[in-house]
Amino acid sequence: MSQEKQKVAVIGLGYVGFPLAVLAATKDYEVFGYDKDEEKLSRIEKGENIVGEEYIDELLPKVKINVARDETNLKQCKIFIIAVPTPVDEKYYPDLSFVRSASETVAKNMESGALVVVESTINPGVCEEIVKPVFEKKGWEVGKTVYISHCPERINPGDSKWNVRNIPRVAGSFDEIGLKKTVDFYESILDATVMPMKTIREAEAAKIIENSFRDVNIAFVNELAKSFDLMGIDIVNVIRGAATKPFAFMPHWPSRGVGGHCIPVDPYYLIEKAKENDFDHRFLRNARAINNSMPHYTIELLQNKLNEIEKSVKGTSIGILGVSYKANVGDLRESPALKVIEELEKLGGRLNIFDPYLPKYSNVKNLDEVLEKSEVVVLLTNHSQFLNLPLENFRDNGIRVIIDGLNCLDKEKIESLGIIYKGIGR
Q1: Rounded CA gap, 37 and 21, in Å?
Q2: Is the dihedral of CA 239, 241, 243, 248 positive or negative?
Q3: Residue of 100, 132, 118 whose CA lies nearest to 171
Q4: Any bridge partners for residue 11, and if so which?
């Protein structure tokens, strides 16, 4: 690397882009962050950790992220990282408009020889069919005046061990020069390996199958939970038993549904892409249907237990513990809790909602208020604050029913306190 710092632009400063920008800045790159969210940019200028990850708190005082409000500020950069959302619409059809728009922004503001890396999760063929044509339309020649690669993001929000610094990566490109540039860049900022893929489509496919694998296995245990419940078998104990086998089994756990940006979204990208080739991913479609059914199934469990105390959802004061899709983070993306809350409200439940990481979505001040106001409780996020609560507090506040949407509470202890307990498959 020359004495002058290489300039890197990160397009999209969310859960993926912001940590990557911070990491690159710690590795002697001059980093420019571009995002259309003004509130986010202002917070970054103030030195705030906008994603809440603890390891970012350690790094922020050591770095400077140059906020780029005007896209022309990106012209001086030689490396561009596209880390924008790739959601699905209400019909579960992939929305690639953010990737296309970000590509257009880069194509208008780069100089010859730039490296462009798409980190956003995309289905096989997107770089060829959407990204590449954007640059060609602007007169750039892939492999000569611009190098386009895909190095799919890998993050695990809230994980104290695995983060953007140390999770291994894969990378693919349209040509050998682009691939080498990509691997060299990521190896310069990561404390992890970067595996070169033979084609850019292989890199795109690798990310999709990672999350589809998890979705399928979670769907399998969710379906088992429904089945075993009818047979009076505790699914949690069964999985623990199966996991004693030291090979050929990987435990996955049933729950109130699947959340986050990746697992409930990525399979649809593969499903829709396959349709273009006249192939039907029936297995993936079934897995998605099963996992999408779990919020409603959780409500059915609640309704059944309310029947035992001769009550219905309508008019009952129900405590909702957690809105975030994952423990100890304030992340709402595709959270199944939102679907549970929406349906309970439609059924006339009087909800007391509390999430310590999402105060804007809470309608009570704290956990004590939830317990004081509620007759039944539905746990939808396994935040540490909820798990560390003495179970006697439920009894002392007159809680009659607990629905454990993540099977993380002590079933036997709760039942010994005279409280009706129901988990997912237990």
Answers
A1: 16
A2: negative
A3: 118
A4: 34, 82
Active site residues: 262
Beta carbons of 313 and 347 less than 8 angstroms apart: yes
- Within the chain, all domains assigned CATH 3.40.50.720 are found at 7-201, 290-423
* pTM: predicted TM-score of the whole model, two decimal places: 0.91
Fold type of domain 208-285? N-(1-d-carboxylethyl)-l-norvaline Dehydrogenase; domain 2 (1.10.1040)
Bridge partners of 421, per DSSP, are 402
Q: What is the DSSP letter of 278?
A: T
pLDDT in tens, 25-67: 999 899 999 999 999 999 999 999 999 888 999 999 989 999 9
**For the chain, percent helix, then strand, then coil, each to nearest 5?**
45, 15, 40
Q: Kindly list the distances between the CA atom of residue 397 and the CA atoms of 362, 366, 367, 417, 420, in Å, as whole numbers in the listed order.
A: 20, 14, 11, 12, 14
SS3 53: coil
Identify the segments of the chain with pLDDT beneath 70.
Answer: 1-3
Cα–Cα dist 59/56, whole Å: 5
Torsion of CA 101, 104, 108, 114, to 10 degrees: 110
pLDDT at position 2 is 44
> What's residue 3's pLDDT?
54
The predicted pLDDT at position 54 comes to 87
What are the structure tokens assigned to 125, written together?
């063929």
Structurally, what CATH architecture does the domain formed by 290-423 represent? 3-Layer(aba) Sandwich (3.40)
